[in-house]
Amino acid sequence: MNQQTLIKEYSFEGRGLHTGKYAHLTLKPAPAGYGIRFVRTDLGVEIPAIASKVTRTDRSTTISEGEVSVITIEHLMSAMTGLGVDNACIEIDNDEVPILDGSAERYVRAIAPDGLQEQDAERVYLEFAEPFEIRDEKTGSWVRVVPSDKMSFEVTVDFNSKVLGVQSARWSENADYVGQIAPCRTFVFFHELEFLAARGLVKGGDVDNAIVIVEHPASREQIDNMCKLFGQPHLAVTPQGYLSNIKLHFPNECGRHKLLDLIGDMRLMGGFPKAAISAYKPGHTINSLASRAALNKIKIK
Ligand SMILES: [Zn+2]
Predict the structure, then answer these.
(1) Could you tell me if residue 139 is inside a domain?
(2) Domain holding 98: CATH number?
(3) How far apart are CA 268 and CA 283, in angstroms?
(4) 249 lies in a domain?
């Protein structure tokens, strides 16, 4: 199959989840062989979206060129893979990609109906000679890459959470990314949110761009504090253990979001892999270690 790029430009804007900074984002068509690159238009710096540029993986994935970074690139990178975009130039005028609704839905809803531009060059799939695995002995997390004719991703998450239980999700090339994976929003545990908010983190978070999981029966006081923090006076907890402001798109939406993240982080190996990628309890740190390991294991033809 041939390489593909966007048919036209697409613009998005909004606040970043972690910094709260407001950014304008423009996705532009790019020539064959360009790959995905971010351009900080405010500073005139280009950063290729590749694992060797990853500098931070705490709660989101950051790439940097020298002192200049782009934070929280993973949902956009996931959309690029899910849609089958080989080449795109992503212009941004601040530090962090807007969180939008916490998923990749806005990107795919804008781009998918237009289709993509086929380019005059064949796609070069990333191939691996043998399977490999990255493990974190402390957390028990792992990411495994197994050579395969078809690209596929699979996750199992287990946060030791009564609300979430154990969730699994899977996506393979040609399956429905737009309808089944892209709409799945990021999530946060209520107790983490209190902790983060008290430290001035999650500045751009509001209760409309994350699923909030309420693990322990939260006290009225805690919920009142959260209502105040987010300026929404009528929050409650559903019997399933979620903050009441949003309805889940899928019973395993959180597991599917982890899959969305894995697809985005693994795109930092620089293209589309001919591999079955599976992960247990994945997170940005182990995902990025795996994409970096993959960079060194790509078969040179
Ligand atoms: Zn995410």
Answers:
(1) no
(2) 3.30.230.20
(3) 14
(4) no
Distance 263 CA to ligand 1 centre (A): 10
Question: Which three-class secondary structure state does DSSP give residue 156?
Answer: strand
pTM, rounded to two decimals: 0.95
Tens place of pLDDT per residue across the chain (301 aa):
999 999 999 999 999 988 889 999 999 999 999 999 999 999 999 999 999 999 999 889 999 999 999 999 999 999 999 999 999 999 999 999 999 999 999 999 999 999 999 999 999 999 999 999 999 999 999 999 999 999 999 999 998 899 999 999 999 998 999 999 999 999 988 888 877 777 766 666 666 788 989 887 778 888 888 778 777 788 888 888 898 878 899 999 999 999 999 999 999 999 999 999 999 999 999 999 999 999 999 987 6
Q: Which strand (E) or helix (H) includes residue 288?
A: helix 284-297
Which of 298, 277, 8, 301 lies closest to 127 in space, CA to CA?
298
Active site residue 249: no
Residue bearing tokens 């969730």: 167
How many whole angstroms from 301 Cα to the centroid of ligand 1?
A: 33
Q: Which residues pair with 110 in a beta bridge?
A: none
Catalytic residue of the set 18, 75, 257, 284: 284
Q: How far apart are the C-alpha atoms of 177 and 291, rounded to whole Å?
A: 21
In a domain, residue 161? The reply is no
Distance from residue 45's CA to the centre of ligand 1 (Å): 25
In a domain, 171, yes or no: no
40 phi/psi in degrees, rounded to 5: -80, 100
- Calculate how far, in angstroms, residue 209's C-alpha sits from the geometric centre of ligand 1: 11
Q: How many domains does the chain have?
A: 1
Measured in angstroms, how far is the CA atom of residue 150 from the centroid of ligand 1?
24
Q: Which domain holds residue 51?
A: 2-124
